[in-house]
């Protein structure tokens, strides 16, 4: 699983996750936090499986094994803790829930939209004139309930 530069995720209309840059930021980018590579890969896996339990094994594979590294359970738990802490720093609470003895899940109430950053420049100009936030017209809804 490689990190794709064209992926950008807006979470609950409050924060933005840029996997290639490994950052979580507020939408206005006043607050911006850089994640470790492994945390960014784990968060991307959680987002791509939003609403479904992601197992420990899936996260080990995405964060470490795919890149030829090993990790201990403690390292995985610290990584999830770092992701949660960064969400709190950008004003988001209760995004990730622990599923006892099975893994973690992005809560079903969380709305995640993927923005395609490779939109033509003229679309960007149109979005500035729109009355809706820019991401409403040019996104694909990933998950919402």
Automatic annotation (TrEMBL):
<dbReference type="GO" id="GO:0000160">
    <property type="term" value="P:phosphorelay signal transduction system"/>
</dbReference>
<dbReference type="Pfam" id="PF00486">
    <property type="entry name" value="Trans_reg_C"/>
</dbReference>
<dbReference type="InterPro" id="IPR001867">
    <property type="entry name" value="OmpR/PhoB-type_DNA-bd"/>
</dbReference>
<protein>
    <recommendedName>
        <fullName>OmpR/PhoB-type domain-containing protein</fullName>
    </recommendedName>
</protein>
<dbReference type="InterPro" id="IPR036388">
    <property type="entry name" value="WH-like_DNA-bd_sf"/>
</dbReference>
<dbReference type="GO" id="GO:0003677">
    <property type="term" value="F:DNA binding"/>
</dbReference>
<feature type="DNA-binding region" description="OmpR/PhoB-type">
    <location>
        <begin position="6"/>
        <end position="108"/>
    </location>
</feature>
<keyword id="KW-0238">DNA-binding</keyword>
<dbReference type="InterPro" id="IPR016032">
    <property type="entry name" value="Sig_transdc_resp-reg_C-effctor"/>
</dbReference>
<dbReference type="GO" id="GO:0006355">
    <property type="term" value="P:regulation of DNA-templated transcription"/>
</dbReference>
<feature type="domain" description="OmpR/PhoB-type">
    <location>
        <begin position="6"/>
        <end position="108"/>
    </location>
</feature>
């Amino acid at each position: 699983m490689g990190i794709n530069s064209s992926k950008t995720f807006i979470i609950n209309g409050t924060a933005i996750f840029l996997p290639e840059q490994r950052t979580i930021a507020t939408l206005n980018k006043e607050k911006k936090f850089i994640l470790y590579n492994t945390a960014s890969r784990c968060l991307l896996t959680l987002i791509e499986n939003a609403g479904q339990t992601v197992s420990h094994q899936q996260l080990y594979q995405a964060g470490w094994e795919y890149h030829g590294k090993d990790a201990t359970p403690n390292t995985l738990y610290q990584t999830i803790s770092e992701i949660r802490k960064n969400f709190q720093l950008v004003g988001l609470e209760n995004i990730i829930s622990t599923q006892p003895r099975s893994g973690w899940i992005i809560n079903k109430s969380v709305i995640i939209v993927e923005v395609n950053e490779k939109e033509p420049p003229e679309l960007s100009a149109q979005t500035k004139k729109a009355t809706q936030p820019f991401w409403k017209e040019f996104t694909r809804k990933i998950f919402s309930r």
